[in-house]
Specification:
single chain; alpha/beta; Rossmann fold; about 180 residues
């Protein structure tokens, strides 16, 4: 646990340095290309802090696939609300913008933010475990594709893991797309 805490601090700084300096367009183009062949609904995330912003791809996906955003409920699994450009937004229990609707979707593909990743497909988030609980739950009923979206500067040599950590199927950065067997 202390290893994760230390890595979060280091990687938060690395991401902060990359944000605003690294051109996100190659990562956005790669993400859009990957998503074309994957099943929807597709869950994205509304960026906070210095997370790479997936909203340009969200906008291009609308019409081709159902698009949704995750909503937190304390520390339980996420639910997903459909999203359209220009719709009213509210804040969830962690202060992140979510669509102002009661309707929900079950995503088949999820684009996840992160602080760090490694070459084994492991992801380090903020520590609340929302995505790990959600992926574990979704993966019990049907296959889902989990795609980490990040700057290459967020790559760590090794992300410390626990039994509850869920691996990613792919990681998309501005320099490459990594694929993993899950």
């Amino acid at each position: 646990m202390d290893d994760k805490k230390a890595l979060r601090k280091i990687m938060s700084e690395r991401r902060k340095v990359a944000h605003g300096v690294v051109d996100p367009n190659p990562a956005l183009e790669a993400l859009e290309a990957v998503l074309r062949d994957l099943e929807g609904p597709v869950s994205f995330y509304w960026p906070i802090r210095t997370e790479i912003d997936p909203r340009p791809v969200m906008e291009t996906m609308v019409g081709a696939k159902s698009v949704c955003l995750p909503m937190t409920h304390g520390y339980s699994a996420l639910t997903f609300r459909p999203w359209q450009p220009g719709m009213a937004m509210i804040e969830d229990s962690f202060g992140v913008a979510v669509p102002d609707t009661e309707e929900t979707l079950v995503p088949k593909t999820l684009v996840l933010p992160m602080l760090a990743f490694d070459d084994l497909g492991q992801r380090l988030g903020y520590g609340a475990g929302h995505y790990d609980r959600t992926l574990a739950m979704l993966r019990t009923s049907s296959p889902v594709t989990a795609i980490g979206f990040a700057y290459e500067a967020q790559r760590a040599d090794k992300v410390p893991t626990e039994a509850t950590d869920q691996p990613l199927n792919m990681i998309v950065t501005e320099t490459q797309v990594r694929r993993f067997e899950v």
